[in-house]
């Protein structure tokens, strides 16, 4: 460290010349941003712009704790100012937790001033020095958990961080170092290592976060590896930024279930409740509550905008003693209303509203106010109606979903297909089926067979890219895809290539070397069965083409039979309709097809 850098650090700390950056942590299952990790940058065009150099200089200058606390305060203030949703992940040094913050409650005080609940904050233990006193650290972590914080261990496997930290401290979350993710799509060893860590995390009741994802291939590999691996972070989604993205759903694989019907918005639970003005006498409101026993909460609106709420229970407690009437007889509603209210835009998806209420633990959450795009009052909602609506949707989806993959089953597939055909837009229906799967299932057992089907479902999901793309699980090893866009054939070919690379991992070395295994056929004869392969049968439907769902299903069944007659991973396309003809040919018309087939990958 040069003298000039030491002096520059003093100026930076004194003048608070630091800029908080935020990088999203995404939830692949919910398709939302789970939270943001706060990072810090020094002044632009400064030797201390890099956080690595900034903290190295602070360590040498003996200013590490002072810098750490300043970074924490600025990150909290900026997170609130930006109005970011989800949780805030704060990098905190263990030495700070054991020193001033633990004794003085500095973080909690900053949160209270900023209006951010501790339940929305994850303390991410990052190390510049090793942990020496584990007992003191466990005591500190218990202290912060009692206040509502979650605790995460950062960069597992890097620097001083080790499995001992995990075992000794039992954090709520663990973030895996980038080293174990880089190139995981081409390293079976790394995939096996990650599977082992996931088992440890499940046994310890800990959530694993994988950071450092930079490529689509790494992302796809993680998605296929294990469905419980939901929280991811890395440049693939977004780089750290002073103005971070608010959503990244366009980069996440689709659920399948969420695509079969439009996402229900919170407007479904809006109830009309007449508002009151801030100047309304308290006694007039008391009369309204007495006249309407079921009235839970009343919005206070000024110039069309909600400014506060009055909740029935809190209001009635004002009149619990003999002097209450005289005390409040001349008061207006503005004097007793609660200005901490939750305002919800009418188009908010139900899932997003549920997440927002869960995060807003510092508020009275039972009732909330709906507003339009300009912030004007529309009506009221309550948590009971929200839970009832979400439960109704989940029950219907679960009832009609495949129990293994959770994807839409036959009923939802047929409903979705019917709706898409009625809309008259172009689409491509693709039937996916595994070949030689029975031999694998018999030889390796049903559990391994289920594992392969799950891997195929994740692979197919990862390749859905269009907003209207859909995936359903017909049953067994059969799937139905509805693809939109002009690149559907390239999507099918990528699926075949990916599956050809994936399937050998499911076999023991001797079967991989032989290219298959011996097993009984349907006639009870022992024969050689090649490695499992994938057949795709595609039926394009032109815009405006009139075709009934049963007819389309029958045609796909015929195409599937044709595809299964070819060996290897195969794409079989019905060319009778791929040119965009608006009418189906007569049954006597020649059945022209276009077949793409290979032993291990697509060969066009």
How would you explain this protein's 3D organization?
It holds the Pfam family EAL. Residues 565-604 are annotated as: Disordered. With 604 residues, this protein is an alpha/beta fold. Helix content is 39%, strand content 21%. The strands form five sheets. Strands 1-2-3-4-5-6-7-8 form an eight-stranded mixed beta barrel, surrounded by four helices.
Describe the secondary-structure layout.
Blueprint lengths: L2 H13 L3 E9 L4 E10 L9 H11 L2 H19 L4 E6 L1 H4 L2 H5 L1 H9 L6 E5 L8 H13 L3 E7 L6 H7 L3 E4 L11 H17 L2 E4 L5 H10 L5 E2 L49 H10 L5 E6 L2 E7 H6 L6 H5 L4 H4 L6 E3 L4 H10 L7 E5 L5 E6 H17 L10 H14 L3 E9 L1 H8 L1 H17 L7 E6 L2 E6 L4 H15 L6 H6 L1 E5 L5 E5 L2 E9 L7 H16 L4 E6 L18 E6 L6
Parallel strand pairs: 2-3, 3-4, 4-5, 5-6, 6-7, 7-8, 11-12, 19-20
Antiparallel strand pairs: 1-2, 1-8, 9-10, 12-13, 14-16, 14-19, 15-16, 17-18, 20-21
Helix pairs in contact: 3-6, 10-19, 18-19
Protein name: GGDEF domain-containing protein
What composes the largest sheet?
Answer: 8 strands, mixed, barrel
Average pLDDT across residues? 83
Helix content: 25-40%
SSE-based structural type: alpha/beta
Note the total helix count: 22
N- to C-terminal separation?
59 Å
Radius of gyration: 29 Å
Give the strand tally.
21
**How big a fraction of the residues is strand?**
15-25%
Lateral arrangement of strands in the main beta sheet? 1-2-3-4-5-6-7-8
Low-confidence stretches: 253-262, 579-604
What best-fitting shape do the alpha-carbon axes yield? globular
Brief write-up:
Residues 2-254 form the EAL domain. The protein is α/β, with parallel strands linked by helices and 604 residues long.
